[in-house]
Amino acid sequence: MSSNTPPVAKKIPAKRTHHGDTVIDEYAWLSNKEDPDTTAYLEAENEFLKQQTAHLSDLQEEVFQEIKGRTQETDLSVASRKGAWWYFSRTEEGKQYSVSCRVPAEGDAPPEITPGERLDREQVILDGNELAGDSPFFSIGTSAVTPDGTMLAFATDYKGDERFTLRFKNLETGEVLPDEITDIFYGGCWSADGSTFFYTRVDDAWRPFQVYRHTLGTEEDVLVYEETDERYWVGIGLTRSEKYLVLGAGSKITSEVRLLDATDPTGEFKVVRPRKTGVEYGVEHAGDFFYVLHNENAENFELATAPLDDPATWTPLTAHRDDTRLLEIDAFSDHAVVHFRRDGLTGLRILPYPEASDWRERMEAAERNAYEIDFPEPLYDVGPAGNPEFTTTRLRLAYTSMITPPSVYDYELDTHELILLKRRPVLGGFDPADYEQFREWATAEDGTRIPVSIVKRKDAAKPAPTVLYGYGSYESSIDPAFSVPRLSLLDRGFVFAVAHVRGGGEMGRRWYEEGKLTRKRNTFTDFVAAARHLKATGWSERIIARGASAGGLLMGAVTNLAPEEFAGVVAEVPFVDALNTILDPSLPLTVIEWDEWGDPLHDPDVYAYMKSYTPYENVDGRAYPPILAITSLNDTRVMYHEPAKWIARLRATASGGPFLLKTEMGAGHGGRSGRYDAWREEAFALSWIIERGTS
Predict the structure, then answer these.
(1) How far apart are CA 554 and CA 546, in angstroms?
(2) Does the active-site annotation cover 191?
(3) C-beta of residue 160 within 8 angstroms of C-beta of residue 187
(4) For 21-42, what is each residue's pLDDT tens digit?
């Protein structure tokens, strides 16, 4: 095959009719994963991609070596205290996966651990490299130690389809028990006595809908709960206090919580409050009372308290604020921590418990004495991290910014001292003083101000080639964070920017509501407005847009809206065939997703609205920028055929390009699993971006 001749996907017209609208999908056949023609086409696309990008091989290797050279390959995490042990993980040079370890606890301060050196009495819990063996893909979905520290539950996936096999390891003897449970989902938790493990299963639509109870040494597991409403998924956990098992059921807009005494694993879970459409709530045990974080008549959520014997009775504690979105509450024996979001940044609020005989008095005084932790940078992201102990005088937190590598602190509650425990080493002469970060505000079509986070080298010329990243769905936020691979762009004079578009959660719940359902178009026009703002204000010239998953839908939509604004587009596992997917309730997650996108199957207005913006349906004959679509054959969230169909239609319909498709034939939604493999994949994407930005 000539390097100038792309594969041509055959056209097999497939008709569908919805609400009187007949559509012909000539590439629907690509959704048949078992069809040899599908495999042959994907392999032909990979070969064409290889030919088209062969000239980038030296640059790709150069970028890979930069990423590798800036990474301390033999490294370790900061240890977290849980019971009688400090837990941490190691990475070792030349090995793809981390090694989970622990060491007996002595004192309250984390042990001093040197990368590459072993501690006395150090114990390996799980070695990902040993478990992975020669498998091209490997992932751990669950790793949970019993409260007494004697037993480990762990679940593994060797395909990337996120169906895990659960096993149990005796940490005192090193023996792996014969108990083995296949086809489970992420997560799970132990009962208080460590005799019983609770886990979840998914249905055919990849919805976690069942909770099972496994008693060690038995063969027949017990179904504890099954969720029959297809809009809801379930999960289960153990409170930090280890007093309650918490079984949660939730849709995109509604939640329901059940509680069970953790010492009675065979008991019956009791509902806190029955589900009420539009009301979300979570329950946190705080010793002699519960915290309840909820959004009933409180768009950005309110913090309430409830007695142990009547958790359905909620007394307001922290009132709702229009400018502050409460994200989560972490309760401890002597204090609580509220994680929040305000003005596009995250923050932490401490509620110290004073001495008082009545818990309500303690809580009211805690609210009066509450304070926030200050951080000096104009852009950053902070949150609780690794706080498994219920009784502690320290708060472990994670901090990063666009110029500060990921950092782990202990915050001393008694002295208000912030103690830096570790900042991820960045090798190769990295100096944060060489870089600067900014917050700009673009103006959307309707006048809304859209925050844009920017980072660049101080000596980079303006305007500069720019990567503009976006997501904008599910109230997920793309917070200002550090990236080692990104340095390969910045050091070549690029600007990197994040458009915090509506549909995300950066500016609170309303920000999310204004970018979903029949207001989804705001997500796309916000991104285009951000691109135009960067050009108009002198930041940028050639802009390469990048996004993944639902951010891949954003990429497809903005390319249809304003192809002239972008010098290139990278769409990773992109949700570009959204209408066809959301019309099919048999596909993974579709019914759950109706609360996010609308229900086009039963609502003609939603159908018409989605059809007006979904990328696959709206490709036309204009000149499109070069596009690189990256997907994985075993992805269970965004199926491989979505970008495959999209690229085929672009080739057949549009001008411009080139349009390239890269399919990882042995991975899932997150791409290749080993860290060196992942670095090579990122180096490939960055080499393509560098060429687009500088040619």
Answers:
(1) 9
(2) no
(3) no
(4) 998 999 999 999 899 999 999 9
Averaged pLDDT for residues 146-169: 94
First-to-last C-alpha distance (Å) of the chain: 26
Tokens coding 466: 């720019």
The CA distance from 690 to 519, in Å, is 34
Distance in angstroms (rounded) separating the CA atoms of residues 572 and 544:
13
Catalytic: which of 635, 641, 673, 687? 635
Distance in angstroms (rounded) separating the CA atoms of residues 336 and 330: 6
Contact yes or no for 441/459 (Cβ under 8 A): no
pLDDT in tens, 71-118: 998 888 999 999 999 999 998 889 989 999 999 998 777 888 888 888
Instruction: Say if residue 666's pLDDT is above 70.
Output: no
Mapping DSSP onto H, E and C, the string for 343-405 reads CCEEEEEEEECCCCCCHHHHHHHHHHCCEECCCCCCCCEEEECCCCCCCCCEEEEEEECCCCC
Given 214, 294, 500, 669, the catalytic residue: 669
Provide the H-helix boundaries in 34-88: 36-52, 57-70
**Choosing from 549, 632, 673, 687, which is the catalytic residue?**
549
Please tell me the least confidently modeled range out of 142-146, 155-159, 203-207.
203-207
> Is 407 annotated in the active site?
no
Tell me if residue 330 is catalytic. no
pLDDT score, position 500? 98
